[in-house]
Design a protein that fits this description.
Blueprint lengths: L1 H40 L3 H57 L12
C-alpha cells in the first residue's frame, strides 16, 4: 500500500511540474506574441501584407528546393540499389564458379563489373 501511495505522490509531482512548465511556456508565448504585435503596430496593413507575401514566396521556394533535393536523393538511391544488385549478382556468380571448380586451385574467371 505504501508503494502505491509513493507512486501516486510521484505522479502528482510530475503532473504539478508539467502544469508549471506549461503555464511558463504560455506566459513566454504571450510575451513573444505581444512583442510581435508591437513590432507590427508600426507597419501599415499594406506593409504587413507585403511582408506576408514575401514570407509565402520564401516558403514556396524552400519547398521547391526541398522537393528537388528529395528527387535527387531518390535518383541517387536508385543508382546505388542498382549497383548493389549488380554486386550481389557478381558475388553469386563467383561463388557458383568456386563451387563448380571445387575451390582447389581452379582459376576463377573474372566477371566484369
Amino acid at each position: 500500500m505504501k508503494a502505491l501511495y509513493g507512486i501516486l505522490e510521484d505522479k502528482e509531482r510530475e503532473l504539478r511540474d508539467f502544469i508549471r512548465n506549461y503555464e511558463q511556456r504560455m506566459r513566454e508565448n504571450e510575451a513573444t506574441l505581444g512583442r510581435f504585435q508591437q513590432q507590427e503596430g508600426g507597419m501599415s496593413s499594406e506593409e504587413r501584407e507585403r511582408e506576408r507575401e514575401r514570407g509565402r514566396w520564401s516558403l514556396l521556394r524552400a519547398v521547391g528546393n526541398e522537393a528537388d533535393r528529395s528527387l535527387s536523393l531518390a535518383a541517387c538511391l536508385a543508382d546505388k540499389e542498382v549497383a548493389l544488385s549488380h554486386a550481389r549478382a557478381t558475388i553469386k556468380e563467383l561463388q557458383r564458379q568456386l563451387t563448380e571448380g571445387g575451390g582447389g586451385g581452379a582459376a576463377v574467371a573474372a566477371v566484369p563489373v
